[in-house]
Amino acid sequence: xxxxxxxxxxxxxxLGDTSAKQSVRVLLTVSGGIDSVVLTHLxxxxxxxxxxxxxxxxxxxxxxxxxxxxxxxxxxRYGIPVYVxxxxxxAEAAKTGESVQMVARRLRYAWFHQLQQQDGFTYIATAHHxxxxxxxxxxxxxxxxxxxxxxxxxxxxxxxxxxxxxxxRAEVEDYAVQQGxxxxxxxxxxxxxxxxxxxxxxxxxxxxxxxxNFWGTFRRTINRLQASETILAGELNRxxxxxxxxxxSEQIVINKAxxxxxxxxxxxxxxxxxxxxxxxxxxRQLAGCLTAEPGxxxxxxxxxxxxxxxxxxxxxxxxxxxxxxxWPSWPxxxxxxxxxxxxxxxxxxxxxxxxxxxxxxxxxxDADRLAGDVxxxxxxxxxxxxxxxxxxxxxxxxxxxxxxxxxxxRATVYVLLVGGVIVWVIGYRIADSVKLxxxxxxxxxxxxx
Length: 449
Fold this sequence. Notes:
Elements: H1 2-13, E1 25-29, H2 34-45, E2 49-56, H3 62-78, E3 82-86, H4 89-96, H5 100-119, E4 123-125, H6 130-143, H7 147-150, E5 156-157, E6 160-161, H8 169-178, H9 195-210, H10 214-243, E7 244-248, E8 251-255, H11 256-260, H12 265-273, H13 280-289, E9 297-299, E10 303-307, E11 311-316, E12 325-327, E13 333-337, E14 341-349, E15 362-366, E16 374-378, E17 384-385, E18 394-395, H14 396-402, H15 407-410, E19 414-418, E20 421-425, E21 429-430, E22 442-448
Parallel strand pairs: 1-2, 1-4, 2-3, 4-6
Antiparallel strand pairs: 5-6, 7-8, 8-11, 9-10, 10-11, 12-16, 13-14, 14-22, 15-22, 16-19, 17-18, 19-20, 20-21
């Protein structure tokens, strides 16, 4: 076991190399159970530069406190530094609505990463072995997964490494007995109310009975899945670069025509868009829309995906501050509008041959026909106004459709109201009621800066 351990950690991370043993610092996550005790013993025997980190989750009363005391004693016996923290896990779960297991995982890994960064550890090592890899694979398969989920726990994930990845639980237990090691038993490991324990106690023994060389076969399968995942990731990256256009730092355009030429476009979209928070149900709905009329929008907590005529437009959600501003009368000079920019207000006398600006961001309104409170706000569904030159009212939404304003840009369209009436869809069109006429003597010039 010791030789296999040294060969594995040297091949994967160079930890068995004499010159690297002290320069590479490893933080061992130690619960006090048999797996983490064996990992600690192997690292000490290999003279690796390690420290121990233990979390007391406070979930099993005196048993949790006993685990903490045991780990402190273990570290002292080996003469290695130890970090200990305690979380009120049950209270945190009640507050957030998460399961206790999810909260415990989130809290401990956040703490491990904090220690790694503040004290300069090269790696964070967990004591997961082949049985944990298999259990994770089966859990993922039961819940639905892709290739990444089928290969279970990888040897390394960022700074997290798994030095016992090569061994089975039986091999870990044999080593502990041979070395006369003492460990703590977690009573919750026997409780079949946890799905992982059901797999451990009832499913895995059946698989081992089916194939006398099950673990050798499983390792080879995992290695093939990892190789397949690497090849697939390369293909997904190449095709993503081909179908997308980063037209700005704020948006990504996916070319529908190019997407349609690729094999398994729905699968590709699911893999590409998963980092932006899109889930499989949304991708299936999106795929069903691609041959229909455009206009649909799909949202996550951070992004919107618009279905357009020739493309899919991915944009981050911009959380704008409250942007409605009002004044009892016309402001003078420049005013800042949150989410819009700035408007500059000035009055001018209208003389013969008065020239209008061709810039849509500049408009002239008949000052004598403006009375009431002045309000600037984002447009809303149901807003209406009478565009210049028209006799009847029109929905602002219909007006924006006619102007072919892209859906993502409509969230940034503002309107100017006077006396509760829209007189300008800012940057696009004024209302007919405030246009300049032959009798106009003073106009209000408003510039969108």
